[in-house]
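Hi Y.,

Following your request, here is the sequence exactly as I used it, all 418 residues.
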Amino acid sequence: MMDRFVVEGGIPLTGRVTANGSKNATLPLMAAALLAEGTTIIEGVPDLQDVRTMAMVLRMLGADIKLADGVLTIDSTQAKSWEAPYELVRKMRASIYVLGPLVARRGRAKVSLPGGCALGPRPIDLHIKALEKLGCRITLDAGYVIAECERLKGARIAFDVGSVGATGNTLMAAVAAHGKTVIENAACEPEIVDLADMLNAMGAKISGQGTPVIEIEGPTELSPVRYRVIPDRVEAGTFLIGGAATNGDVTVDNCRPDHLAIVLDKLHDAGATIETGKNWARVAAPKRLKAVDVKTAVYPGFPTDLQAPWTTLMAVADGSSSITETIYPERFNHVPELARLGADLKMDLNTVRVKGVERLKGAAVMCSDIRAGAGMVIGTLTAQGRSDLLRIYHLDRGYEKLEQKMAGLGGRIERVSE
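Below is the corresponding structure, written out as C-alpha cells. Let me know if you'd prefer a different format.
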C-alpha cells in the first residue's frame, strides 16, 4: 500500500505546534545505551521509521526495546552479539553508530557497510581511521567492517572534515580507551553535544563538546541513565519556514532557538517578524517576503537539512536569490518537483538560482528523500489549488504525523492510502 498526501494549498499556516525530540540525536543515544549493562530510558523520542530501524538493529544485537508515548526503554543486559547485518544496516546510514559501542563493550564488531541514503556516497573512512588510532585492527570483508582490539588506547585524532557520524562513533569508543583521547576538528552540532552530555550522565569524562576540540578521559565505567533528548531543530525549522512561506503566523514549542539562530536570522532578513523564548520560537510573515541568499555549512551555519524548505520559501519571495549547497552538492532532487508547481529555478553546479514568482500552482509531485519531501510539503501548502504528493514514506522516516501537525495549523492536507 502506497500512501500519498492530498493538499489544498494557498491557506496561511497559523497557530502553535510542538516539535518532537530530535531524530538525529536519538539514533546515537540509542547506540550509546549498549555501553552500559542494564536499562537506559530515553524520553521525548519520536515514533519514526528510522527509530524503528535502529531498534531492530539493537534487537538483533540482543537488546530488549520498547517505545511507548515518547519513552524509549533499552535493556542491554542480553546484548551479547557483535554483528549488525546488511539487511538492517542497508536501510539507514545511522546504523553505523553501533560500531563504536560494540568495540568499546565487546572488543570487536562486525558491521555492514551502510546504505539507506539518497544523497550519494558518504564513505566511513573517518570512522575507520579513528578506531585504528584507538588501537583497533580493521579489515573489510564481503561488505562488512570488522574491528577487533584487546585494549583501546587514548589517542589524538584529527579529522580532515568535521563529521557528525565519525565524531559520535569516536566518542562512544573513546570512553573505554585507556588514557586521554583528543578529537580535533570535531563536529559541533547540538546532536553531538547531546550525545556527550548523555555519556557524561552515564559516568564518562568528556569535555569540550560543542567546540572543535573534544577531550575524553578513559576508561570509565558507565551506568544506565534516564535522559531526555533535545528538540528536533530540523522539524522546528520546517514548521517555521512553512509558516513564512504560506504568509502565516506559527509558534513552535519544544524548540531551542539557539539551535536555529542562523535560520531565524535569515527569516528576519527576509522580512518576517521573529519572537523567541527559552523553549519556543514564532515567525509571522508579511504578504510577500524578500529574497535572501543562503549557503549551507556545518553547524552553526545554515543546515543542509533545511535547504529544500528554504528553496521553497524563496520560490515565492520577492526578487532573486541563490541557494548554494556545500555539504551534499547533489542535494537538489526537489528542484524539478518545485518547477512542476510553477517555481522559476535554474541549476548551476551546486547552486540553484531562484526568481520568486507571485504564487505556485497545485500539481502532482513526489518526495525523493526526507528533507526534499519536507520542501515539497511546504510547496504544496503554498500552491493554489490541489496537489498530490507521492512517495511520502520518505517523510515518515523523519517526521512523526507531519500531516496532522500541519492540519493543526490550518493546512488542508490529508493522508490517503491507495
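The CA atoms of residues 33 and 341 lie 45 Å apart.

Thanks again,
Q.
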